[in-house]
Amino acid sequence: MGLGWRGAGGTLRKRTEESWYLFMTLLLLCGFWKANTQTDDGKSVYFWETGPWGRCMGSDCGPGGSQSRAVWCAHVDGWTTLHTNCDQGQRPSNQRNCFHVCDWHKDLYDWKLGAWNECVPVSARTFGAQRPFTCSGGEEGIQTREVGCILKSDESPAEDAICEYFEPMPRLEQACLIPCPQDCVVSEYSPWTSCSKTCGTGLRNRVRSVLVPSLFGGAICPNLTEFQSCKPGPCTRPEGLYSLRVGPWSPCALQQTRTARQVKRRKGKGQGLRDRGGVKDPETRELIQKKRTRNRLNRQESPFFDIQVGYQTREVTCIHRNGSKVGHNLCTPRDLPLTIQSCVLPKDCQVTDWAEWSSCSKICVDPEFPRGNRTRKRQVLQFPVGEGAECPPLEETESCEPPGDGVPPCSTYTWRTTEWSDCRVDLLLSQQDRRRSNMTGLCGGGLQTREVFCVQANAELLKYLNDLKERDKAGQSQRQQKPSVPPLLSISFQITASRPMENQFCEGPIPNRSQLCQIPCPIDCEVSPWGAWGPCTFENCNDLTGKKGFKMRKRQITNEPTGGLGNCPHLVEAVPCDEPSCFNWKLVGLDKCIPDNEKQCGPGTQVAQVQCINSNGELVDGNLCSSSTAPQPVPCEVPCSRDCVLSDWTSWSTCSQTCSSKTIEGKQMRTRSILAYNAGEGGALCPNSSALQEVRNCNEHACTVYHWQTGPWGPCTEDPSTSLLNTSAGVRASSDGQGLCSMGMQTRKVICVRVNVGQVPPKKCPDGPRPSTMRPCQLPCKKDCVMTPFSNWTDCSVTCDSAGNAMKKKQSRKRLIIQTPSNGGQECPEVLEEERECEVPKICPGFRWKTHKWRKCQLVPWSFRRDSPGAQETCGPGLQTRAVSCRQLDGTQGDISECLKFAKAMPTITQRCQLPCQDDCQLTNWSKFSSCTADCVGVRTRKRALIGRSKKKDKCKNTQMYPLSETQYCPCDKYNAQPVGKWSDCILPEEGRVESIMGMKVKGDIKECGQGYRYQAMACYDQDNRLVETSRCNSHGYIEEACIIPCPSDCKLSEWSNWSRCSKSCGSGVKVRSKWLREKPYNGGRPCPKLDHINQAQVYEVVPCQSDCNQYVWVAEPWSVWKVSNVDLKENCGEGVQTRKVRCMLNTVDGPSESVEDYLCDPEEMPLGARESRLPCPEDCVLNDWGPWSHCSLPCTRTNSRERTAYPLRSPSVGGECPETSDKEPCSLNLNCFNYFYNITDWSTCQLSPNAVCGSGIKTRMLDCVRSDGKSVDITFCEELNLEKKWQMNVSCVVECPVNCQLSEWSAWSECSQTCGLEGKMRRQRMVVQASQGDGRPCPSQIEQWKPCPVRPCYRWQYGPWSECRVESVVCGHGMRYRNLSCFVSDGSINGEGSLVDEELCSNLEQMISGEKQIRLSEACVLPCPGECYLMEWSEWSACVSICVKGAGIDFGSVQVRSRAVLAQEPENLLQCPDQMWESQPCTGGECYEYKWLSTSRQNSTRPLIWCQRSDGLNVTGGCPAMNPPVDNSSCDPPCLMPKSFCSEAGTCVCEEGFTEALSPAGQLDQCAPIPILEIPTAGDKKGDVKTSRAINPTLPTAIQPGRTGRTWYLQPYGPDGKLKMWVYGVAAGAFVLLIFIVSMIYLACKKPKRPQRQRQQNNRLKPLTLAYDGDTDM
Question: Which tens digits make up the pLDDT trace of 115-135?
C-alpha cells in the first residue's frame, strides 16, 4: 500500500466535484489508520526527526561552548505530529557540548593531509571485487586519503569543525587512472647462426631483443633465443671432449711478513745515516737533501698515496664438454698460464670530515634574489688505489640567507642619462636637404640625443650605512646627537654625478637615447602698408617754440615677432614741412547754395561745414582751432531758367605723386559736366571745356623722407649702475635651479636715415618716435661642466701563451659628461678616458700533474711462486709504481686539491713490468726514425740493439723474432685547399670608420655602405682526405671577395614652386604650390610622401587664401559732353547720349593708383560707360544726378522698398514743373536686396615655418562673407551686420618628423659557435636605437652579420673496438679484453666519423670520452668453453618508446630497454643455461606507437600468414590486442569486398562488430548495416541518460566496461536473412496494447466515479542512491 515508505506523500488537487468526494474518502481512511499506530509488522508509524546542529555558542573560547538542534515527531508519510505520539524514551538530545572557535584559533589548528592511497578501480570499489574488463588506455579509479584537523603544536587530533570554521575540508578522494597492462614486445628473430659444431650433432641459434619491457602486470617477455639442432656431417675423428678453463683472479692479498721486514729495513737505514758523521759542506748537504726528497717521492711515502703491492691467484681446471671437472691429465699437454701475479692492494678513497661552512655569498638583502650560496670542503686523505672506491665529492653547496639582523641592502643599479644635447634639425634632413648652403636658420622639429650609462643607485646610502657601522665599531657614535639623514639618491631624479658601472649590471628597458624636440621658429615681423601722409604738425604740440614741422605717415605691426618689437622695420616716416599746426579745421561739407539778395537765382554763397581735428585726425574742441583761420563761405551760383546748368564738382582725385621735387610735382584734379545748355540769348553761357575741370598742386613737400633706423641688440652685459642692487633685489634663481641669474642691460645703435641717401644727423628726424637705445635683460645663467667620476678600472683577465708566460694587457676607465658648460661656466677636462698597463702576475695561474720515476719492478714473493712450473726467483712479471705530485705551471709545489680541480686527469701510478730472465732476450728501446731528405722520396728507419748476454744467444739473433730495425716509406704529405660553406655577409672594413653625428649610426651614413668584403672558409686536407690545419696549405683560412653594400638613396623632390594666385579675387579662395618627383627611393632610402593620386609624380600643397574685395576697383572718368541725337540747333536740347571711360585700378591707402587688367575687377560691379537721357531744354527744370539708393532693411521682402533722391539745380520757368525728386522701388531678394552670411573654409594643411622641416605648425581656415546669391563680397558687409563668429580660425598641428632609423654600433664579434670543424660561425649584432618615424629611412633588415670561423680540425679521443676475449693460451675461462684509446680527427659534422691520426695531435686534449674522465681500456670477460651455454653481450639500447594510448592524450612516460639472450652449443647442456636478462631505463621524447594485426595469404596453404606490426612498420611479437587475429579475406569465395566485412573461420563473410548482415536472396552478404543500439541505464549509472556505444561485439559475451556497472542490451531487429525478426512484431503488438491501456486509464481517471475510492499511487519507489563512475572526466 506504500505506507511503509517515508516521504511518499502526494498532493491531490481539486479538479471536479467528484474529485472532492474522493479526497474526503481518503481522509476518512487516513483517520481510520491513524487510530491504529502500529503497522502490520508491529513497527510504529511515528519516529523522531532531527535538524542539523546549530553554530557553537559560548562566552569563552575553547571546549566550553554549546550547540543545539531542532527535534520533532514525524509520521512515516512525512508530516509532523505531536511529540506525544513518539516514544519519549528514544527522543534524541537537542543540546550538546562543543568547541567554541575564535579567530585566534586559526594559528593553532590546521588540516593534516595524508598521502594518497593506491588507485583502486571504480568497479572493485563499488562491488567489492574486481570484474574482468577489456582495458583501453587505462581503467578509471579512485584514490583516497585521510584528512583530519590537528593541533599544530603536538599534531594531536582535534574536531574537524574547528578547522572547518576557517577553511573547508580538503577533498578526501580524487579520480585517477590505472594504466593498462603493457605486454613485453620483442623484435623479430635474427638469422640462424652457423652450427656450433663442424661435425656430429650441434645447435644453431637465432635471437631477438626486447623492444618494450613488461609493465603494469603485462605478459612477461618470451624466450629471446630459439634453438635448432644441426648435423653438418659425421665426425672423421674423435671430438675434443676436454678443455682447460681459467678461473677468475682472487682478491689481492698482502704478505704481512714482507711488509714488516721492509719497515725494519727502512728504520735501520735511517738510524745508520743518523749515526754517521755529519756532512759539514753546505753544498754537499743540500745535494744530499734534494736526493733524499726525490727518493722519498719515488717511494710514494706521500700522505695521499699508500700503495702496497700484494699478490693474487687463480685456478686452472680441466673440464668436460658437459661442464664437469676432470683431472688435468685428460687435457692436452700445454704450457699452463700464470696462476699467481703481483697486484696493487685496493685502497678506498679516504677523505676528511667536512670543514665548516663558508660564509654566505649573499651578504646583503635582495628582495628579488634573497638567497645565496655557501660551500664546504673536505680534503683527500688517501687516494683510491687499485680497484678501490672512488673519492666522493670534495665540495658541496647549499643555499643560505644573509646572517644577522643588521644586514645592509644589496647594491641596486639603474640607468642614468646625460642631459639632452641641443636640439638639431640637420639630423632629420634628407639627402637633398643637405645641399642647402645655409643651415643656420633651421627650426621646427629636430632631434636631440644623450648617452645612457649604468650607475649604482644606492651607493651613497650604502656608504652612509657603512660609515655608521664603522663609527659604531669604533665606539664613536654619539647617540644624543641628531642622527644624520641618509641620502635618498636611489630615488632622486636629478642629475647626479654617479660613478658609471658596467652595463650588464642594469636590467630593464634602456632609456631612449634620442627624442624628438622642437626649435621654436622665429616669427617675422609683419607690418601693414603705409598710411596717408598726415598734416604738417609740430613734433610736440605741448612745446611749440622754435620747433620744426613734419608731415608723418605710419604703419602698424600686424604680426609681432618673437624677438620683440625691436626686430621690426621702422614704423614712422617723416617729411619736413613749413607752417606746422597741431589743430586744423576739417571741411565736412557745403550747405545749399543761397543766392545773394534773396533772389531766386544768380550768384550766391555756400557755408562750409567744418570740424576741429588734431594732427592724428581725432575730433577735438573747436576752441583749439581758434588760432587757425576757419574756411570762408564758398561763392556759388544758382542758375536761372535760361542759364547753363553745371553739375557739382567731383571729389579731388588721388595725388599723382607722394612728394614734390624740382622735376616732379604732385597734382590733383576734379571735374564737372554740363547738365543743360543756356537758352540762347539772355541766359548765362556754358563755359568752355577747360573750365569744366580744375587742377591743384598736392604733396608739395620735398621728397626728403627721414626715419629712425635701429641696429640689432647687443649682448646682455652687467649694468654697473645696478650692480649693487643685484646683490639683493636683482638676483633671482634660474628656472632650472642651476644657479643665480641677474638682470643686465642691452644696447643698440639708433641713427637717422634719409631714404635712398643714408645716415644723416639726428636732428633731421623727429624726436618723438625715436626708439630707445637701451633695455633691461636677463643675464644668462652660468652652467658648469658636470661629469661623472671615473668608472672602475676594467678587469685584467690573465691569459697565458703556450710557454706559460702571462701576456701583458691594458685596463681602462672612463667618465662621461653629464652637462656641458655654457655661458662662461667651468669647462670640462679634456681627458675622458684613461688607460694603464695591467699588473702581470709572476706565475701564470694553472696547475699540472708531475710524474716521478717508476720504481723498481716488484715481483710476487718467491715463496708463493716457487711451485709454479718454469718460475725463477729473480725474473718474471711484476708491478711497478711511481709517485705523482701537483705543480704550478712554473714548477713550484701546488696543493693537490688544486690539481684535482683544475688539472687534467691524474696519471696512472701503477703499471705492469717484466724483469728479464737469463734466457730472455733484452733489447734497447727503439730509436727515433731517421729524417727524410724530401717528402715522398726514399725511406726512413729506426733501430734497436741487443743488451748484454743477449748478444751471444742464438735465439736472440733471430731477426724475425727480434727485429733490430724497421723501415718505413717517407711520408708523402700532399695538401690541397678547398672552399667550404657559404659566403658570409658583406662586411665593411673595420678601420677608418667615421662616426656619424652625435655618435649614432644612421642608415646610409659614411661607412654604412660602400665596398666591403665577404668571406668563405678554406679547409685544408691531406692526401688521405683528413682535415689538417689551414697553415699546411699556406692559407690564412679565408677567401676574400669584394662586395658592395648599396647606399640608400632617398626620394628626391624638387623645391616648392611659387604660390599660385588666389583662386578668388574677392573673399576666400585657395592657392597651390607643388613639388615634382625627381628621383624615386631605392636601397631602403627615405620613402616619398604621399603623391597625387592622378599624377604620381607631383606633390601638392593647398592652403586657403583671402583676397581683399576692394583691392581692385572700377574708376569712372567724368561724363563726356552730351551728344544730342535730334539736334535742335536753336534749343540744343532733347534726347542725348553721354559716355565716359571706366578703368580697373589697383586700390591703395591713398586711393586708386594704377590701371590693371579689367579681369581683376568684378564685372558685375563695373559702372556704365554710356547713358541715354534727355538733355533739358531752356526754362526746363534741371535736377542733379540721382543720389545713392537707400539700404533695404533686412530681411528682404517685397513689402520693403528703397529710394533715391535728387534736388533741382535750376528752377523751371513760370508754369513749368520739376519732375519727381525721389525714386522708389521694391526690395527684391538677390536683385537689389541681399542677405549676408559667413562661410568657413576647410582647414589648410599643417603650415610650417619656411625654415622648418617638421614639428609644430598651424592649420588655418578663413571666414568668407557670402551674399545670398552665392557671391563672395567684402567681409565688411557681414561685420556691419554684427553676425556671430563662432569658429576657431587657427589650431596648432604637428607634422611628423622624418626620423631615420638609428642603429647602435656593431657589437664585437662573438666567439666561434664551434671550437673546431667546418660550420663554425662568428656573429655580431646591432640594435635599433631609434625606430624610423614618418618618412624617415626605414630600418635595414640586416641587423646581424656572420662570417665563418677559420677551419680547425676537430681532434678527439675515441675508443677502438673491444678485442676478442683473451685467456692467454687457454681455450676458455675468465680473461680480459682490451681496447685502444686513439686520436681521431673529423670536420665537426654530425655524421663525420673521423679518421685515425697520430696521438701527438691530441696531446693537448684531456683524455675524456663523452665527458667521462674515467678511461677504461680493459675489462674482465668470460670466454665460453666448448659446449657451454652462456649469455650474449648486451644488445644496443632500443629506441625510446612512450607508454601511451595513441589519440587519447594519455602518456605514462617513456622507456628504453636492452637485453641479453642465451646461446647454447650442446643439446644436452640446455638445462644448464642461465636465465635471459633485460634492463630498462627512463628516457625522454619517446614515440607513441600503435600495434595491429596484419595477414597475408600463403602459397599452397589455405591458412593465412598473420603477424603483429608496429605503426612504424616494424614486425614485433607482443603489443597487439588480445583478441582473435584477423583471417585472410581471400579464403572466402566470393571474397568479402563489402565495407565492414571480413572472412570468418567458417569461410563465410560476416560483418564487424557494431554492424549486422543484410543478405541477398541468394544468401550472400549484401551489405553491413549499423546496429541500432539501446543502452538501458541501471542503478549503477551515474547519469540516467541514454548513450550510444558500438564498442562491444554483439556476438561475444558481454563484459563489464571499466568504470561502468550494469548490463547493456543490444537489440538486433534484423535476422541473418536481412528480414525483421519475429520478436520485433511482438514488441510492436505489445506497444499497441500498452497504448490502448494508457488511453483507457486516462479515460477512467477523468470519468465521473460512481463511488469514492482510494487510488494507489504508482511508481512511488525511490531510486537507490548510488555512486558510480561512468567514465566522465569531470568527476
Answer: 998 888 876 665 444 445 566
Mean pLDDT of 1265-1293: 85
Q: What is the distance between the alpha carbons of residues 732 and 739, in angstroms, rounded to a whole number?
A: 9
pLDDT tens for each residue of 1044-1084: 988 888 888 888 888 888 888 777 888 888 888 888 888 88
Contact 110/150 with Cβ under 8 angstroms?
Answer: yes
Cα–Cα distance, 1480 to 704 (Å, whole number): 118
Read off the pLDDT band of 996 (50, 70, 90). very low
Main-chain dihedrals φ then ψ at residue 1326, nearest 5 degrees: -135, 155
Q: Which residues, other chains included, contact 1178 with Cβ-Cβ below 8 Å and sequence gap of 6+?
A: 641, 642, 676, 677, 678, 679, 680, 683, 1131, 1133
- Count CB-CB contacts under 10 A for residue 20: 13
SS3 1278: helix
Report the alpha-carbon distance of residue 1244 to residue 1056 in Å, rounded. Answer: 17
DSSP three-state, residue 446: strand
Q: What angle do CA 1468, 1474, 1477 make, to 5 degrees?
A: 140
Alpha-carbon span 32 to 50, nearest angstrom: 28
> In angstroms, how far apart are the furthest CA atoms of the chain?
195
CA–CA dist 1080, 1077 (Å, integer)? 7
CA-wise closest residue to 1467 among 197, 194, 206: 197
Measured CA distances, 917 to 869, 870, 874, 875 (Å): 14, 11, 7, 5
Question: Which of 82-96, 247-261, 1186-1200 has the weakest average pLDDT?
Answer: 247-261
- Beta-bridge partner residues of 1077: 1053
Please give the radius of gyration of the chain, using alpha carbons only, rounded to the nearest integer. 62
Calpha distance 1129→942 (Å, rounded): 160
Q: Which of 1306, 1301, 1302, 1346 is nearest to 993 (CA)?
A: 1306
C-alpha to C-alpha distance for 543 and 538, rounded to whole angstroms:
8
In residues, how long is the chain? Answer: 1675
Task: State residue 800 phi and psi, 5-degree precision.
Answer: -120, 145
Planar angle of CA 875, 881, 883, nearest 5 degrees: 150
Give the span between the Cα atoms of 786 and 822, in whole angstroms. 11
Q: What is the grid cell recorded at 649?
A: 564738382
| 1577 vs 1227 pLDDT, higher one | 1227
Give the phi and the psi of residue 798 in degrees, each rounded to 5.
Answer: -90, 125
In single-letter form, the type of residue at position 133 comes to F
Cα dihedral value 795, 801, 806, 812, nearest 10: -30
For the chain, what is the mean pLDDT?
A: 78
The grid coordinates of residue 1663 equal: 531510486
Neighbours of 1422 (CB within 10 A): 18
Which grid coordinates are listed for 495?
642629475
Quick one: average pLDDT of 1531-1552? 71
Q: Is the pLDDT of residue 1575 over 50?
A: no
pLDDT, one tens digit per residue, over 1347-1393 is 999 999 999 888 888 888 888 777 788 888 888 888 999 888 877 77
Greatest mean pLDDT range, 41-55, 324-338, 1316-1330, 1614-1628:
1316-1330
Residue 1143 is given by DSSP the state E
Q: Residues 1193, 1195, 1201, 1204: what is their CA dihedral angle, to the nearest 10 degrees? A: 40
- How is 1217-1270 classified by DSSP, letter by letter? ----SEEEEE--BTTTB--EEEEEPPPPPPB--TTBSSEEEEEE--EEEEETTS
Q: Which has the closest alpha carbon to 224: 237, 244, 205, 245?
A: 205
Distances (CA, A) of 482 to 408, 473, 477, 479, 485: 21, 19, 11, 7, 9
